[in-house]
Write a structure and sequence with these properties.
By secondary structure, the protein is an all-alpha fold. It contains 24 helices and no strands. α10 crosses α24. The chain is globular, with a radius of gyration of 24 Å.
Length: about 550
């Protein structure tokens, strides 16, 4: 097919964004520029191009708001538990297992993988974030380490294999004309190889960042401080040189002061006023400018009040039990004992249950009349946290949605029923003929196509394309179509399923662990790409 000017402009935008990401710079401005340029090339109307900036962000917000809402509700729940000091009581049983950073790392990986394998990561991650992440932080695991473990085990290993629900293998196998069971078996093996390699590299990266178990670590994390190693003074010197030249040169004080402020925080100083992971103000935690401690609760809710202590003990058991019963219900639904809960409904069940628990906890702690105010405050704090921490990804996601035929018409304001081009799919199809007929090169070519399809932020949207390519190209080079389809599935799901791109369900992981989502995607990039390279070699040479 012939590529139009809009295709080349969109491709240039992708290259610009990828290059900016590799250079470790914020990709917001490149995404905005690429959106305007692509929309202008598609329509030839500068007014529509400017409107597309807003429409693309609005479309991304409407598609991703369910994720934002889950983050908000779980954050509100953590706020209510923290108000009665039930959060620390809730994690106490896990301290017997999570005795240090490495044991916490292992528990998070195993728990995330098992739960996500049955229920998909979107409903599983908030549950893990509410129950296991605080215990892991207290055990000495950095927040970024917890985020990487959850992302790789859940959005990566569990979702890319999808071995239990088998939606992904079914899509790949149907398009490739292969046996779904064989695709699922190969995908499970490749996901374990990819995840094992990535986690090994991440473990080496975290070796010097583990800290001694302490309640202070949990308090820092809940206050909005990212737990991790102290930056070196050499970093500050390099930053000064980059911003202002040599010694004595004028320097942008605001940026340097922000970095130095974060250094002070890492060694126990007060939280920064801005930057890093946004602080979640509210009745359960300190607001910016309030100092290291927040105003205490009402006399009847003071931390030393026996009534509050009893409530803390009750809710420390009730919250995990409620989520445990939810998991039992989901399992019974899978075996047909009760009506099955689908993936989207399961995520809604997590958010709804968290909301109910917020209301119940506030009524129990503050009383029915005061709860009318406190519930609203906790929910508002949760929404503020979700948008302050994750809102920057919406314009970025909007650019990639512009390349999807399903969303392009809405973004460009085309009339209903008007066909909109799928720029990203067109580019992938056009590149197909440049893939040589060597089995190893073929496997890596399909992997790259899967990765490009995953840039949309939807891990499953590219599976029909990679499956079709596997069925068409596999026999010509002597590669089993099921194997080639599984390789494409790895690329698409590991990228768009929530590990390599920040405008995906990686938002949930970053939200529950309270780390910057862009930085999390950067930390995952090299280990996961190494894992995908190893698993693709395994597929090409051994399967």
């Amino acid at each position: 097919m012939a590529l139009s000017a809009a295709h080349w402009v969109y491709l240039g935008g992708i290259v610009l964004i990828l290059g900016t990401t590799i250079a470790r710079r914020n990709v917001l401005v490149p995404a905005l520029l690429a959106t305007v340029a692509t929309a202008a090339a598609m329509t030839g109307d500068p007014v529509v191009a400017i409107q597309a900036l807003f429409n693309a962000t609005l479309t991304a917000a409407s598609e991703l708001f369910n994720i934002f809402l889950i983050i908000a509700m779980v954050t509100a729940l953590l706020g209510t538990l923290r108000a009665m000091h039930a959060d620390q009581r809730m994690v106490t049983p896990f301290q017997k297992v999570m005795r240090g950073g490495w044991s916490a790392w292992t528990v998070l990986i195993v728990a995330t993988f098992v739960i996500s394998l049955f229920f998909w990561p979107t409903p599983a991650v908030p549950l893990i974030g509410a129950i296991l992440v605080p215990a892991a932080i207290r055990a000495g695991l950095p927040a970024m380490g917890a985020a990487m473990a959850i992302a790789v085990a859940g959005q990566g290993m569990a979702l890319s294999s999808d071995y239990v629900m088998q939606v992904a293998p079914g899509l790949s196998a149907t398009a490739a004309g292969a046996d779904p069971g064989r695709v699922a078996d190969i995908a499970l093996l490749l996901s374990l190889v990819t995840g094992g390699t990535a986690l090994t590299i991440m473990g080496l990266m975290l070796a010097r960042q583990m800290r001694t178990p302490s309640d202070a670590l949990l308090e820092e994390w809940e206050s909005g401080v990212v737990t991790g190693p102290r930056p070196s003074t050499g970093l500050l010197r390099r930053l000064r040189r980059r911003l202002g030249g040599g010694p004595g040169a004028a320097e942008p004080v605001t940026v340097v002061e922000e970095v130095e402020e974060r250094v002070a925080v890492a060694v126990g100083g007060p939280p920064p006023a801005s930057g890093g992971v946004p602080h979640v103000p509210g009745p359960a935690g300190p607001a910016p400018g309030d100092g290291p401690t927040a105003p205490g609760p009402a006399p009847d809710g003071a931390p030393d009040d026996p009534r509050t202590q009893r409530l803390a003990r009750v809710f420390a058991v009730a919250v995990p039990a409620a989520f445990g019963l939810m998991m039992v219900y989901l399992v019974l639904g899978q075996v047909g004992v009760v009506p099955a809960v689908q993936s989207g409904s399961a995520a809604a069940l997590v958010g709804g249950l968290a909301t109910v628990l917020v209301v119940v906890a506030c009524v129990a702690l503050d009383g029915p009349r005061a709860a009318l105010t406190s519930v609203g405050e906790h929910v508002t704090d949760g929404l503020v946290f979700a948008f302050r921490a994750m809102g920057v990804v919406l314009p970025i996601a909007g650019f990639f949605f512009l390349g999807n035929a399903e969303f392009a018409g809405r973004i460009l304001g085309l009339p209903d029923g008007t066909h909109a081009p799928g720029l990203l799919v067109d580019l992938v199809v056009a590149a197909e003929r440049f893939i040589p007929g060597n089995p190893v090169v073929m496997c890596f070519g399909v992997l790259v196509i899967g990765l490009l399809c995953g840039l949309e932020g939807s891990g499953f949207s590219g599976l029909p394309l990679t499956g079709s390519l596997a069925g068409a190209l596999g026999p010509s080079v002597g590669v089993d179509p099921a194997t080639l389809a599984a390789v494409g599935q790895m690329g698409s799901v590991w990228a768009g399923g929530g590990v390599l791109v920040a405008w995906s369900s990686l938002l949930v992981v970053a939200g529950v662990t309270r780390v910057p989502v862009i930085e999390l995607a950067r930390r995952c990039f090299l280990p996961v790409m190494a894992g995908l390279a190893v698993s693709t070699l395994v597929a090409a040479l051994l399967l």
